[in-house]
Every structure is written in structure tokens, then in C-alpha cells.
Design a protein that fits this description.
The chain is mainly α. The protein has helices at residues 5-15, 21-36, and strands at residues 46-47, 62-63. 0% of the residues are buried.
Length: 68
């Protein structure tokens, strides 16, 4: 997976905090679902406005949540 630099740095930061192990696990699970099936119901994905997909502007950018 390719992450934006700030997202990659944040995930690495969270991985270094033992008390955030559960959150890191949830994030990785959500990213796994997102990679395999972006329409996975539990992700509740929706189009993210204000940012254009640099690889395919017609496709758009979507976001999902690891925690509700």
C-alpha cells in the first residue's frame, strides 16, 4: 500500500506506543478490507471532497474509519 507521508508517519508513531496497539490493529484491519474490497459494508466508505486522485481523477478519493 502507498500512504501519504503524514499518514505513514502517524501509523509508525502509533506503532511505537504500546497503549495504542489495539488502535493500530483496527487501522490495519480496516486498511486490509479497504485494499481487498473498498465497498466492504463495515468500512462505511464515502467520497472525500477537496482532494483529487492523482492516478485517476475520475475515480476520486474515498475515506473510511477504523473506529466509529
Amino acid at each position: 500500500m502507498v500512504f501519504a507521508v503524514p499518514a505513514d508517519a502517524e501509523l509508525k508513531h502509533l506503532e511505537g506506543i504500546p497503549s495504542e496497539a489495539g488502535l493500530v490493529k483496527q487501522i490495519k484491519k480496516a486498511l486490509g478490507h479497504l485494499q481487498k474490497n473498498p465497498r466492504y459494508p463495515a468500512l462505511q466508505t464515502h467520497k472525500f471532497s477537496g482532494y483529487e486522485n492523482p492516478h485517476d481523477p475520475k475515480q476520486g478519493v474515498f475515506e473510511a474509519y477504523a473506529q466509529q
